[in-house]
Every structure is written in structure tokens, then in C-alpha cells.
Fold this protein.
Amino acid sequence: MIAIGLMSGTSLDGIDAVLVRIRPRRRTYAIDLLNFVTCPFEEPLLQRLRAALPPNTGTVEELAQLHHDLGTAFAEAAKQATSDMPIDYVASHGQTIWHAGEQHVTLQIGDPFIIRETMQTTVCYDFRSGDCAAGGHGAPLVPYVDVLVLGSDEEDRVAVNIGGIANLTSIPRGAGPYDVIAFDSGPGNMLIDAFVRSRTRGEMPFDRDGALARAGRVDDAALDAMLAD
């Protein structure tokens, strides 16, 4: 199968679009990366998205318009990632506007039907809502795929994802899809980006290539305290 995956995280750095070939391989899948693009949000849309996030409040009208406009942005990102190969489906996570995992309540926007009409293919979407409806917390969403793609019969593994929020999946050797433990482990790029924006007075939206972090010095006492926790 040829698929496009779309993701915009809580850090709002932009829309990632990936084109992949997925092939069954014994108990797992072989995934070939064919293309990858990151499409930055246009500044007006970015500011409207930030204004819609807690603790801000908005209107139903603005949320509906954002749902439409973000769907259009997702569709444009999918077009940039595509090639002359027919696409079997597009998977779109959507932008999380509200999430209360313990209450199994979540809301993602980014109209999937605009993506469908633009790409003329099947669209899978709103995975957090599916997980919450099944009794999950809606986050993290990656453990099932982590064990399929990264599991090993020879060694225990831990997969760490530092997105807007950091999460990890503990994968014991020989584990099946329901033998793993996964959880959000703390803040990630969302707070780092906010710190960089604050310290640079908005001149830098994020620490590109980690240049600012590399220029600093490790606080060994703080690091030791965190590693000991």
C-alpha cells in the first residue's frame, strides 16, 4: 500500500507529511520512506490556532472556520508529499484543541473531507477520539505501531518520542501488541519552543537544530537529580 501520513503536533511547528510504502513482513511491516515534507503554518492561521487553545476561549463560529481552514492546509501538505503513484489512503491525526484523557474527552480539528476531496482517496482520521471511545486516554497513540515496527525477540527496547509532549513505550523482548506499557512522560517541544520564543522576544519560534542548547553547558547537579528520579 502507498499512504500519506499527516501530523501537526501540540508544539504547532507545522504540518508534517510523509509518503510511505507499507508491506507485510512476517509479524510486522516493512515501511519504505518515499518522501517527507514539513509545511510551516501560515502566520495568520498559526495565531488563530494559538488563540483557540486553552486557557484562551473562542466561539463555535471561529472553531468551525478553523476546522475548515486547517483541513485545507492539511490537504495542501498532502499534495506536496505526493508523487505520480496512486495513493491508497491518507491518515490524518488532526490538531488537538482540547484533551482530557482521564475523562475520555478529546477534540481534534482539520476537516478530513476536504483532504478526501482534494486527494480523491480514502482518509482515516481522528485517532484520539477512537481510542477514547474504546476506553483509552487518547495518548500516547504510538505503542501499537512501536511494538509492530520496533519490537525485538532478542532484547528489551524503549521507544522515546519527544513531540510537543514527550512519551515513551517500553517493549519487552518478544512482546505482542498488548504486552507493552506506554505513557506520557513529561513536557517536550511545546515548552522548549515557548521558552525560546520568550527569550528571543518572538524572533525565533524554536531552537533550530538545537543550536542554542548546544551552545550552553550542562548543569551536572540538575542532570544527576533528574537521572536519579
Summary: The first helix runs from residue 43 to 52. DSSP finds eight helices and ten strands in the chain.
